[in-house]
Amino acid sequence: MNRLAGLIIALVAASCVPSTAQVCINPNDVLLSNDNLPAVPSGATPVSVIQGLGNGEAAAAVFDTTGLSTQGVKVNLAAVGYMNVVGTNGIQAAVNLQIYDGVTFDAAGVPTLGSLAFDYASATGSNLQLTSHAINTTDLSAFNVTVTSGKLVVAWSMVFNTGAPQTNFATDNSAIQFTCNPSVTPLQKNLIFIQGQGWRDAALATVQGIPLCPVFYSGNWIIRACVEPMVNPTQILISGSPTTAGGFVNVTFNSPNHPGQFYFGAPAFTANMGSPTVYGTFPLDFDPLLQAYLQFPVEASQVFFNFNGNLGPTGTAPGIIFIPPTTPPLSFLVAFIVMDPTLSFFEGISSPATIQVL
């Protein structure tokens, strides 16, 4: 998109064409997409070919994964629509696939991508091959691609397009007349890499001062991902909370990947920054409750029973919290860590669990 003339040619030729796709293979995966196409389109499905992207330019989709897991997601598959304006099959393009962990936008809407979590060309020593007329998929399950920021960016870069300009990346726009309202082309969802500019929001991007949307771009990129929500295997399980003064709460220290290893649990009122140590960062803040727990271990053991020791053969250990009869209504947190066999670093770290006293 380094020449305005190329954009004009591209959008004059843009048309609606049918496409096909498939869903995730892994039953635990969640299909992420911004486009409005069915997961598996049946029959002719209109889309728009955006022909202005040249070699060295790219399209990317931003997905919010915060609702799937607090631990992040593993990207097992990525997909992109590579379409021909008249539906011709068999046209090929060489592309690269990159996965970024996070994205931020400045006051002008210009994106800054987070850390590069995966680069297909670097990982394999080769480019990917796209074939028209379809939503091409790439299995990433063997690469252990993880994203933990809550924002997944899937970027497809055009290396060499044999079918240009009539064959290119496509959007879900089904109208001959392009529009650019947020319901059709939402902000901060579709990115475009323009030579000489870098990454831009497709809804706001300009070339030589002329906006791409709606005249030259409309809709959402047909870019998809199948992700597996990650679960922290080191968990502290609570039974009996809320409780009352004089009552008790059952605790299970659960870390199935670390049977027989040493564990250490503790309480605190807050877990904002955690507590850095020479072994790693303990998940609870070094607040007055944690300080008292460490300063008075004998007294603490009468309230927090079996909060350290060795996990059993299944990676679990039981504990109990005895609430003193004079305890006022309050809430606090408990968490635990698992040490590596040489006691040199934290090998497992749980998320905090809440205890309520009514």
Annotation keywords:
358 residues; mainly beta; S-adenosyl-L-methionine-dependent methyltransferases; 2 domains; 8-stranded antiparallel beta sheet; 7-stranded antiparallel beta sheet; 4 helices; 28 strands; 8% helix; disordered N terminus
How would you describe this protein?
The chain has 2 domains: 4-229, no CATH class; 235-357, S-adenosyl-L-methionine-dependent methyltransferases. 8% of the residues lie in helices and 44% in strands. The protein is built from 4 helices and 28 strands. It has helices at residues 4-13, 120-124, 288-295, 297-303, and strands at residues 16-17, 30-33, 47-49, 58-64, 73-84, 92-105, 111-119, 128-131, 134-139, 145-147, 151-161, 167-171, 190-194, 198-201, 206-207, 210-211, 223-229, 235-239, 248-254, 262-268, 275-277, 280-282, 304-305, 308-310, 316-322, 330-339, 346-349, 353-357. Strands 1, 2, 3, 5, 9, 10, 12 and 17 form an 8-stranded antiparallel sheet that branches. Strands 4, 6, 7, 8, 11, 13 and 14 form a 7-stranded antiparallel sheet that branches. Strands 20, 24, 26, 27 and 28 form a 5-stranded antiparallel sheet that branches. Strand 15 (206-207) and strand 16 (210-211) form a beta hairpin. The model is unreliable at 2-21 (pLDDT under 50).
